[in-house]
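Standup notes, structure subgroup. Blocker cleared on the iron/sulfur cluster input:
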Amino acid sequence: MTNAGAAAGITALTGLVGPGITGATPDRPLKDPEVSPAGAPTTTTHLSAEQSAVHRALVDEWNPRLEGKTAEEILDWVNTYVTGTVAVTMSMQDTVLAELVQDRVHDADLVFLDTGYHFDETYEVARKVDERYRLPLKTVEPVLTVAEQDREYGANLYRSNPTACCRMRKVEPLARMLNPYEAWISGVKRVDSELRKNTPVLDVDRTGRLKINPIVAWTDQDVEDYIEEHDLIINPLTRQGYPSIGCATCTLPVAPGEDPRSGRWAGSTKTECGLHL
Ligand code: SF4
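Run returned:
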């Protein structure tokens, strides 16, 4: 693990305070973290009522029929039934979705949320993904750089208010990014957490877009097997005690046998960034 920010994050979420909280008084008042920076939408435009209704009908009809199907079969269904371009969200923890989608869904973009806080290893995986796959890789960034956010809201907001930080650096950029798409594919798995254990294969999000979870029934071992069988790009952190990788500032290694996601926002009650709620 080579991101220096990670070390700072380890102290942050175990209750210690950092320079942004106790440091010098800023020369102007800090902004309220509940108020996002101006200049960009914070939500996704709703699809039309007609299109939303079409998606709901697809979910009602096909969810029971796709349950138990393979990820490949689910993606073949996407290619047949979804019109328009599909966004494939990539955490760069692994590249399973890119591999699965590439030859099955012909109109798809890979999307990487660059929070500005990722591990160097994660950025390197993103670079290799761009080289290896034909699908366009679109990088989505928050309105503010990390330095600008520190200046506007106080240094290291992830320490004092990780929910606001995730909202401004993940949830809202994803919401803006989804505007041109009618569907998105995620790598959520039911085994990820208690909160995700009932995730369906197909869903309709709050904006009427289809959300497709092709590997929802996979186990962590299934992911490992697929990576090996297809010689996928490896994020080296997954071999160094990081089974679930988010921002370097908010991810700790996990001991063997521990809950794989327990290293995310460790020491706080936060378990989700909000992208999949
Ligand atoms: S995980 Fe969320 S709180 Fe932590 S740095 Fe990333 S965006 Fe901020």
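Discussed briefly. The chain has one domain: 4-20+36-263.
Next: hand off to the docking folks.
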